[in-house]
Amino acid sequence: MRRTRERLEVIEYRPGEDRLVYRNNDNEAEGRSHGDLLCGNCGEVVLSNWSKEEAQTHFVMHDQRVVIQCLACKAYNLLAAPSEKVEQNIVLNRA
Ligand SMILES: [Zn+2]
Fold first, then answer.
1. 87 C-alpha to center of ligand 1: Å?
2. Per-residue pLDDT for 89 more than 50?
3. Residues 6 or more apart in contact with residue 60 via CB below 8 angstroms
4. What separation in Å is there between the alpha carbon of 37 and the centre of ligand 1?
5. Which of 28-32, 55-59, 82-86, 91-95 has the lowest mean pLDDT?
6. CA of 68 to the centre of ligand 1 (A)
7. How many other CB atoms are there within 10 angstroms of residue 30's CB atom?
8. What's the average model confidence in pLDDT over 2-15?
9. Angle at the Cα of 37 (from 69 to 42), degrees rounded to 5?
10. pTM of the prediction?
């Protein structure tokens, strides 16, 4: 069967704001797509057995971006955009 290959979007990872997931046997086994997700930078496979649409649906979080790092070039790729963009109220507490 022919496998589809989709390139992810490379983004700048924001520690503490974005959710980082790792490539492992569990999440590759969970995927049902006959396809691979490729690093948007170098084209290496970052996750097997997933389509972009499927990854978006499965990994989506309410207000965090879900990011996966390419093991080859270390680029961060967007796996799922937030389901809802939330306005953040930043409160600065000053003593
Ligand atoms: Zn890469």
1. 31
2. no
3. 66, 80, 81, 82, 83
4. 11
5. 91-95
6. 10
7. 11
8. 95
9. 60
10. 0.83
User: Could you read off the pLDDT of 9-33 as tens digits, one per residue?
Assistant: 999 999 999 999 998 888 988 899 9
Q: What is the CA(93)–ligand 1 centre distance, in A?
A: 40
Ligand 1 center to 28 CA (angstroms): 18
Diameter of the chain by CA atoms? Answer: 64
Q: Which residue type sits at 95?
A: A
Distance 39 CA to ligand 1 centre (A): 5
Quote the number of domains for the chain: 1
The pair of three-digit structure tokens given for residue 59, joined into one six-digit string:
């990994």
- 74 CA to middle of ligand 1, Å? 6
Domain span at residue 32 reads: 4-94
Q: How far is the CA of 89 from the centre of ligand 1 (A)?
A: 34
- pLDDT value at residue 88: 44
87 pLDDT more than 50: no
Q: How many whole angstroms from 30 Cα to the centroid of ligand 1? A: 22
